Amino acid sequence: xxxxxxxxxxxxxxLIPTELARRFEVLGYRALAMTDHVDTGMVETVxxxxxxxxxxxxxxxxMTVLAGAEVTHCRPRHIARVVERARRLGAxxxxxxxESPVEPVIEGTNRAAIEAGCDILAHPGRLTExxxxxxxxxxxxxxxxxxxxxxxxxxxxARLAREVGAQVIYGSDSHDVGDLKPPENVExxxxxxxxxxxxxxxALAAAERLVARALEREGQ
Length: 220
Ligand SMILES: [Zn+2]
Ligand SMILES: [Zn+2]
Fold this sequence. Notes:
By secondary structure, the chain is an alpha/beta fold. Helices cover about 45% and strands about 15% of the residues. The longest helix is centred in the last third of the chain and has 20 residues, at about 195-215. It is globular, with a radius of gyration of 15 Å. One zinc ion (ZN) binds next to loops. One zinc ion binds near residues 7, 12, 37 and 175.
């Protein structure tokens, strides 16, 4: 199983990156991205630390560990710049914190995230049909969230993605030890969003492809 949306104490998570990775390894995951919250300034300090840890763990674990970032609560016009900066600093997976139903995320964030070419639009909330279509066109994955609150609109996101041919992906958005769930939880969350067996397989395959693509990307 693969989880490409998690947090460490470099933002508002509880664990240092190496412990988070160890705990996911013990749970039996195959790949993990550590995607701490970043903005125009935090991207400079957070991403290089995650990139360093991911580089040190490469080849030391059965599990693939990827440095990432979650561009969070930025002004929409800053999003593309932060996505680009995160990639240049070594983020292999770039998530954008979408318009969750439980946070005052600025309207237009979903659109700006897709236009910026992030990998995953996290918890897109009341995603519009035109944004879903654009995500399908650009190959931006729409997240089905394992996190309470953000998950309120999972059904809406799954339905809209199916209608327009966009691809969904699971993300736990884990912050603390209590959030760390066994791999079976991934399929449970996807099924809970209304995905059928084939759609669940497609979501898992999309995660595999994204990891493969991320590994090919040049880190710095
Ligand atoms: Zn957080
Ligand atoms: Zn998150």
